[in-house]
Every structure is written in C-alpha cells, then in structure tokens.
Amino acid sequence: MFRPLPVSFCSVTSGRGHSLFPSRGRKMAPTHVLRCCQRGLAWIPVIFIALVVCWSYYAYVVELCIFTITSIGEQIVYLIFFHLSFIMFVWSYWKTIFTKPANPSKEFCLPKAEKERYEKEERPESQQEILWRAATSLPLYTRTGAGAIRYCDRCQVIKPDRCHHCSACDMCVLKMDHHCPWVNNCVGFSNYKFFILFLAYSLLYCLFIAATVLQYFIKFWTNELPDTHAKFHVLFLFFVAAMFCISILSLFSYHLWLVGKNRSTIEAFRAPVFRTGSDKNGFSLGFRKNIAQVFGDQKKYWLLPVFTSQGDGLTFPTRLVNVDAEQATVTLHPEPNKSSADVPVSPLSESQNRLLSNEQHANNTGDHLANNTLKSAESETITISMESES
C-alpha cells in the first residue's frame, strides 16, 4: 500500500547543502510532534484501567481475603474463583488491545497505471469509471449511498464490504465496528471476538467482586467489624465494582444484540447499501450462523480469547443471491416459502462456502440453474431463493 513520505523526508537541497524548501520542513515538525503526543495521550484510558485492575487485585487478595476474612475455607474458594476470572479478563483485554486491525489485501489496491489515471482525473464521473473497471474482478456487494464504488482516498484502496476508514488509527479496517479508547485500538474483524469476551469477563469479574464483598461491606458500614486499614479498600472496592458492572452490562448487552443480528455498530446506525438499496439485515444469516461467524464452528473455543472467527474479513455472505450485471458476483437475500438451493456462481470465498454449507442441496442445483438460465433473457437480475433462519 502506497503512502506518501512526509515532506521533511523529501526536501531538496541546493549545492551548498541548504534546503530549497526550508519552510515545509519546519511546518511538518510541529505536526509530527503533535501526532506523537496524540498517540501518547491515547494510552491514558488504558493505563487508567490497568491501574484500577491492579488496585482491585491488591484490595481483594490482600485487604479482603488475607486481612479481613478469617475462614480458611472461604479464603481458598474466593481466591480460586477470583484468579480464574482475573486471568480470563486480563487475557481477553490484552488480546483486544494488541491484536492489530486487519487491513484490505493488495488485490483491493488500484493497479499503478489505474492509480495514476485516477489521480490525474478531476471529474468524479471519470474517477468512478476507473473504479468500476478495477472492481469488476472483486467480490463487492455494497455501494455508497449514491450507488458508487466505495474508495478510500487516504489509504488508496477500494473498500471491501463492511470495511471503513478509522481516522484515529489512520487506516482502513476490515469489518470495522468502532474505535474504542478504552483499548486504544480499532475493534473489527481481527479482534471483535476478543472484545466481546473482554466485556463478558470484565462483567463477570465485577459481579464476582461485588457479590463476595457485599457482606463485608455491610459489616464495615454498620461497624460490626473494627476500623482497620482494610475498611477503606473494601468499601471503595464494592462501589467501584458495582459502578463498572452497571456500565459494562449495558454495553455487553448491546453487542450481544449486534452479534445476533450480524451487524456492526456502524451498520446499526447506517444500514449498508446494496445494489437493490439499503438493507439493515443484509448480512444476517439467522441467529445460529450469525453467532458462528464471530465465534467460529467449534464451541469448545468460544470462551477462549483465541481467533476462531469465520472467513477472511474481505467477503461476507448476504441474504439474497443476485447476479450482478457489472460483476461476476453474488449477493444473498431471503425469499420465504421457497425451497433452499445454492448456486456455484464465482467468486465465492472460503468463508462464504463454509457459512452456506448447510444450505447446499446438490440434487436441486441443476433444476434451478436451468430455470434461471431461461429467466435471464427477460431480466438482468436472477434471483435464487435461499432458506433463511429466523
């Protein structure tokens, strides 16, 4: 992917060694420093969360379990379950932060000759003609609101379906959901499962702390226990756990709803646009398959922060299969009260084949192909109904 070098690196010097464009180099320096400061400040929310987690570990293990609880059996049980939730919470949080967002592959970049022509063209109509020619071999189903090819001038790539440019990360992110300041990273195809597990385990962590601290919170509050240095930690630990629990619960519930509908946060606010128009349920394949697309086919890995999401992030099956007049691509839509079938129209990615494997019926393929071939002479669009799950 081509990215222009900063002006300070491209300055031209005279024979005496003086830059012919000294003002440009000086102008770029403050911008570069500002960018570095922004990147540094972006870690403040993550550092804050890390400090709170470290303090909660000390307050629970040392102040509560060691100095406050007198029963050995209760200490052991509390410490075992606390450390299990703590390890899973930290593991998923780490994966969410340090998993690099997935970017479009080289096939979505314009060829060198086409890129030069695109940059020289001043008319949007001519630029779109170039993009349409370049996109004929790409599995693109979504468009802009005006029906044009989605192109990122910043990254100089044709955007795959569900891909968006993140201004904070300064890159195009596959299946971008949102940029989260609490993890200082973009949540998208490569780490969305980790983000869901992070919310789940952080909620479990806070619930466990609040539930086990509650009785000692009441005892300290009613002065049943003597005032010690542990009192402040126990009281404050309960308030912090309860506060985070309430805030995380709403966010976790919302993202579970998004997973069930197979939508990203961006698509929930702005429905994706297909050739036939916008459709907020365009990528929904039914509840079970929507869950499998994020968490994978093997349920034994669902609760572990390891990557098991289906597909490559570049192509996604949709609800209705339409042959695109400009492209040899397919889209999927539901058509109720019809038998299910699958048509081997290329290109279908590996992820699409796997997600649609349960919908394939080889015995009916020949009949549907014959019927749709006769209909193609009368209409530009061939619709093959597929069975959808409610």
Beta-strand residue percentage = 5-15%
Give Rg in angstroms: 27 Å
Summarize model confidence as the mean pLDDT: 80
Query: Which outline best applies?
Result: elongated
Can you give the helix content as a percent range? 40-55%
Which residue ranges are poorly predicted, with pLDDT under 50 across at least 5 consecutive positions?
1-28, 321-390
| Helix/strand order, N-terminal first | HHHHHEEEEEEEHHHEEHEHHE
Structural class: mainly alpha
- How large is the count of helical segments? 11
In spatial order, strands of the major sheet run: 1-8-9
Number of strands: 11
Quote the distance from N terminus to C terminus: 41 Å
The largest sheet, given as strand count, sense and whether it forms a barrel, is: 3 strands, antiparallel
Written description of the protein model:
With 390 residues, this protein is mainly alpha-helical. It contains eleven helices and eleven strands. Strands 1-8-9 form a three-stranded antiparallel beta sheet, with no helix packed on it. Helix 2 packs across helix 7 (229-261). The longest helix has 33 residues, at 229-261. It is elongated and about 80 Å long. The model is unreliable at 1-28 and 321-390 (pLDDT under 50). Keywords: Acyltransferase, Membrane, Transferase, Transmembrane, Transmembrane helix. It is an enzyme of class 2 (transferase). One of its GO terms (cellular component) is membrane.
Summarize the model shown:
Residues 348-376 have a biased composition (Polar residues). The protein has 390 residues and is mainly alpha-helical.
